[in-house]
Amino acid sequence: DVKVTQSSRYLVKRTGEKVFLECVQDMDHENMFWYRQDPGLGLRLIYFSYDVKMKEKGDIPEGYSVSREKKERFSLILESASTNQTSMYLCASSLRRGLYNEQFFGPGTRLTVL
Amino acid sequence: GENVEQHPSTLSVQEGDSAVIKCTYSDSASNYFPWYKQELGKRPQLIIDIRSNVGEKKDQRIAVTLNKTAKHFSLHITETQPEDSAVYFCAASMGAQKLVFGQGTRLTINP
Q1: Residue A2's pLDDT is what?
Q2: 3-class DSSP assignment, residue A18
Q3: Which of B30, B32, B9, B33 is nearest to B21 (CA)?
Q4: Any chain A CB within 8 A of the CB of B9?
Q5: Residues ≥6 apart with Cβ < 8 Å to A87
């Protein structure tokens, strides 16, 4: 049973702070993804990674960066948090690149930037 | 890049009736179309998917149809039950790599 966990369910930060969101999966998946979820906008891809130390920009990468030092862990970094980054952040993983495989999501982190 | 439009944004049906959610996509190269269900306070979970070499796929009370010519696909839920109440997301991708999601449909089943 795939398990994707995220470091926090709720997080409150101040404008300008550096914010780290962590995601860990325990099923040796190669692919990992970061999305933000906003009402009426669906799930929008921020960054994704197919391998350790590899990253690719998604559809809305501005203001974010990522790190993948280990296969099981994918971190999302807000270098200088802004109020428009208040959102629900969802991490996901899937087995392998190039396969039609399911994305397994974490529980989400609701981030509020004041 | 790919763009996915999903309609309606909200849908309310009587228990036992059918519900249909429709999505259109822009990139004719897309070949994989999953549907995810997100119950209140829970994470999204895959409920059904279809590849472009198939026109229809069923799994008990849910079915997905795909019209490649028109570039649209639909989710059909029959005999709806209270536990079907959730937000549903369609998505499209080429090769199941990067998914592009629709805006979501909030489905409410009225008893």
Answers
A1: 64
A2: coil
A3: B9
A4: yes
A5: A36, A37, A38, A110, A111
Q: How far is CA A33 from CA A66, A80, B7, in A?
A: 10, 21, 25
**Mean pLDDT for chain B overall:** 95
Instruction: For Cα atoms A107, A111, B1, give the angle at the middle one, nearest 5 degrees.
Output: 75
Cα torsion angle, B83, B96, A40, A105, sign: positive
A62-92 per-position pLDDT tens digit: 999 999 999 999 999 999 999 999 999 999 9
Residue A106, both tokens? 């974490």
Q: Which residue in chain A is spatially nearest to B103 when comparing CA positions?
A: A42
Q: Measured between alpha carbons, how far is A96 from B44 in angstroms, rounded to an integer?
A: 19
| Residue B97 DSSP code | S
> What single-letter amino acid sits at A53?
K
Identify from B101, B105, B106 which residue to disrupt to test chain A contact, counting A C-beta atoms within 10 A and taking the largest count: B101
Q: What tokens appear for B23 in the block?
A: 């999505």
Q: A57 falls in which pLDDT band (50, 70, 90)? A: very high
Partners of A53 in the β-ladder: none
Angstrom distance (rounded) from CA A13 to CA A24:
22
* Mutant choice from B98, B105, B106 vs A, greatest count of A C-beta within 10 A: B98
What is the dihedral angle through the alpha carbons of B38, B41, B43, B46, rounded to the nearest 10 degrees? -20
CA-CA distance, B84 to B79, in Å (whole number)? Answer: 10
Per-residue buried b or exposed e for A86-102, using 16+ beta carbons within 10 Å of the residue's own CB: bbebbbbbbbeeeebbb
